[in-house]
Amino acid sequence: MNNTPLCKRRRLSVWVAATVFAAVCLLAWHWSHGRPAAAAPWISILPPLLAISMALATNRVIASLFAAVLLGGVLIARESSSSLWAAIPVGLWHAGRTIGGTVIPADYDFTNLQILAFVVLMMATLGVMLASGGLQAVAQWLSGYARSRRSTQLMTVLLGLIVFIDDYANTMIVGPTMRPLSDRHRISREKLAFLVDATAAPIAGLAVVSTWIGYEVGLLGQQAAALQLDRDGYSIFFDAIGFRLYCLGMISFLLWNVLTGQDFGPMATAERRARQLGKPLADNARVPGAKMLWAASSVSDAPLRAWAGLAPILAVLLFFLGGLWIDGGGLAALQADWLSLARPAVWRHALSTADKNLLLTLAASIGLAAAWLMALTLARIAFRHALQATLRGLLAAMLPVTILVLAWSLNSCCGQLRTGQYLADMLTGVITPGLYPPVVFVVACLAAVSMGTSWGTMGILIPIALPVAVALDGGVYGRVTVLAAAAILDGAIFGDHCSPISDTTILSSAASSCDHMAHVRTQAPYSLLVAALALVLGYIPAAQGAPWWLGLCAVTAASGVVFGGLALLRRKG
Q1: Chain CA centroid to CA 65, Å
Q2: Separation of alpha carbons 368 and 312, rounded Å
Q3: Mind listing the pLDDT tens digit for each residue in 180-217?
Q4: Is the pTM of this model over 0.90?
Q5: Cα–Cα distances in Å, from 260 out to 93, 270, 298, 356, 570?
């Protein structure tokens, strides 16, 4: 029998995952007693619970997601079948149809297909940028400003905050740009993926000009109209910004982490490996397409030119921003008011009406064309080398694309099984106004982790939780309503950081060339700590009447105490 430390850890992971799975199932089954027959069934949590437990126990994301989708198909078929055995073949067929339907649905909504195309084209672009030496040249240029581990990490965070327009674009630009530099300064890929992931969704969700605000404001506006509130969606969004204590707390947590240079938990282990052994990745790491992608590097002896790396990135960003402006009616606004480019309200309207996903795909195509142009003219690499690099990038995209499709399929199963409704039902009962916002935050966190989608969590919980909040406010727009809105938006993003089936988490792993489950395991303790601080020091006091700035100061100070205490302990040790 193999008793190596690695095998012991794996056996422990299996036992812990199995125990948690069984315990949650028993609690859910017990809690479902006495509920109405038409209510969402407790078994609706089984597919996401299986995916998360199996992934954490086996470190095999695709197998875990596939098993969860199959289970979801069987459970859906079971609702209309006379027996479990009869439901199995129907469920397997349903699971296959669900997987296909996430790419091209029955109503021919090509949203998911456009996102997949964006990922594939961006990976191909990265392959060409590597072959031309563009990314290496950018890393050399940045190295003049990032001369240490600390400054490199700080630059990664700042770059993540600058690329605020979209979380997908953020991860796919920041990760590959900073990866060569982080490797040079012996920063683990787990740390790079955390820095990329922890800035992408929070800044996109907070920015008043981003692709998120249209969706968030749309959901809030629908409820404001339905509940006849004296506020519109934008007003609720802005009122809630100060109480977005998880997102704001995560950004301050990142800065404390980088400035102090302290880490804890699995991240500290990964950082010691990279710093002492010079291994950005663990020996047993499974990286989405890394070998294929990095095989595109060093195919040419051409001189390194930074513009070969900068031009494609700028082309993607500028085309995307320009496309959002034009498609969202910006030209008409510009004709009426030549100062409209500087007006946030005009940008918000453009972002809420433009076709973001199509523009992402077109922007990635422009980026690939720019990468080819720079490779052939500036770096002067051979046509066949550029073609080989493109093909390697396309092959490297297959693994993250597969994971994304399966994650979406699982989300579809959760929607049909009413997983979000079941979790939201926990809000019912006797809840005082002082407890409601913290409870909403916890439920939003659980829902987002279970379903792996922040937007899906918002879409499910906002229509359910806001009417209850308004009722607790006495039928008017008040503090509980604002806090509940902030709690849902915040909890949804927490799921993007802790769920192994979240699309943003998957893309952050792929863009940083990091083992996906290693990224989840190292990031989860940090996200859980920030969420706990936001809950205890932010939402609970805010629900009792404390101002937003007090909660933000408390969360920021607590993060500083954590990292300052770690630095002090290690100095004494």
Answers
A1: 17
A2: 7
A3: 888 888 999 999 999 999 988 888 888 765 657 666 77
A4: no
A5: 53, 17, 35, 38, 12
Alpha carbon dihedral 450, 204, 482, 459, in 10-degree steps, equals -40
- Share of the chain residues as helix, strand and coil, in percent rounded to the nearest 5: 75, 0, 25
With both helix axes pointing from N to C terminus, report the angle between 245-260 and 516-533 in degrees, rounded to the nearest 10.
110
Number of CB atoms found within 10 A of residue 478's CB: 15
Whether the CB-CB separation of 70 and 91 falls below 8 Å is answered with: yes
Helix, strand or coil, per DSSP, at residue 314: helix
Q: Which residue has the higher pLDDT, 536 or 99?
A: 536
Q: Decide: 448 and 457 in contact? Cβ < 8 Å.
A: yes
Q: In 3D, which of 291, 299, 286 has the Cα closest to residue 136?
A: 299
- Separation in Å, CA 3 to CA 7, 9, 14, 283: 6, 10, 15, 18
Q: How far apart are CA 271 and CA 274, in angstroms?
A: 5
Burial 165-195 (b: 16+ CB within 10 A, else e): bbbbbbbbbbbbbbbbbbbebbbbbbbbbbb
Q: Are 250 and 527 in contact (CB under 8 A)?
A: yes
| Distance from the Cα of residue 397 to its chain's centroid | 18
